[in-house]
């Protein structure tokens, strides 16, 4: 009676070890893919920053708006069309990003500018007043494909998220978690460039109290490679254990076969 019981335990151990091998190999391959993605992001950042600075205007080809490319725009702020983006932290402090369109001289075409970060006042749930600046300004920064997004738990249920009003400009600036460029263009009626300017400097405007220290994506692909090595090491250990268990089972089966008359 001991033989079937021992055989069942051996089969169960081999199955469990096979599952461990499959899972750890899969995790190692996933870490290698993440390393490739981060390496591609690092290459895109370097390629963008090697481009000559771009003077933004209407009618430029989409290829000119390479992410991370230095760019400059001249126009007038439309502070009444501003949006505050909440839950944006800086050095561990909660706060807001301010997004305001900069309208070109033609009065219709514009670029959405992420102007900077401001801290949230302790105990207050209200965003600060939007800085007002009159006259044309020249804004310098780097281009981004879109406004960086935050994960929204309520996005799966379709409820709970603050939305843009049908028409911006009436009342205080709305406070949102994320901002879609197309939806913002519809709400403002502006012809927006298909890019976002993350402001780093304004050559003709006074100090507005905004911090322009933008977070960048993680590009440490060597960390993922290290994790992949760990997962493959676990897989190798599990494979070795599988061979040991299988070898011992085969040896016991031979001994039982030889012991039979």
From TrEMBL:
It holds the Pfam family SURF1. The keyword Cell membrane applies. Keywords: Cell membrane, Membrane, Transmembrane, Transmembrane helix. It is found in: Cell membrane; Membrane. GO terms for cellular component: plasma membrane. It is a multi-pass membrane protein. The chain crosses the membrane at residues 227-246. InterPro entries: Surf1/Shy1, Surf1/Surf4. Belongs to the SURF1 family. This is SURF1-like protein.
């Amino acid at each position: 009676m001991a033989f079937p019981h021992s055989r069942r335990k051996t089969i169960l151990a081999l199955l469990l070890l096979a599952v461990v091998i499959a899972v750890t190999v899969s995790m190692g391959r996933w870490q290698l893919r993440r390393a490739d993605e981060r390496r591609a992001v690092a290459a895109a950042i370097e390629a963008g920053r090697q481009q000559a600075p771009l003077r933004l205007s209407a009618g430029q080809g989409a290829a000119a708006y390479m992410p991370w490319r230095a760019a400059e725009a001249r126009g007038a702020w439309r502070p009444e069309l501003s949006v505050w983006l909440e839950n944006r932290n800086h050095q561990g402090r909660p706060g807001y990003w301010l997004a305001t369109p900069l309208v070109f001289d033609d009065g219709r075409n514009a670029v959405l500018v992420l102007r900077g970060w401001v801290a949230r006042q302790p105990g207050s749930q209200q965003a600060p007043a939007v800085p007002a600046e009159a006259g044309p300004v020249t804004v310098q920064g780097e281009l981004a494909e879109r406004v960086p997004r935050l994960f929204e738990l309520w996005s799966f249920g379709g409820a709970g998220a603050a939305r843009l009003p049908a028409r911006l400009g009436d009342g205080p600036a709305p406070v949102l978690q994320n901002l879609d460029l197309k939806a913002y263009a519809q709400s403002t009626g502006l012809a927006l460039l298909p890019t976002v300017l993350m402001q780093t400097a304004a050559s003709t405007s006074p100090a507005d109290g905004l911090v322009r220290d933008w977070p960048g994506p993680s590009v440490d692909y060597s960390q993922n490679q290290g994790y992949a090595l760990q997962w493959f090491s676990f897989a190798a250990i599990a494979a070795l254990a599988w061979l040991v268990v299988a070898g011992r089972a085969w040896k016991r089966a031979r001994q039982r076969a030889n012991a039979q008359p």
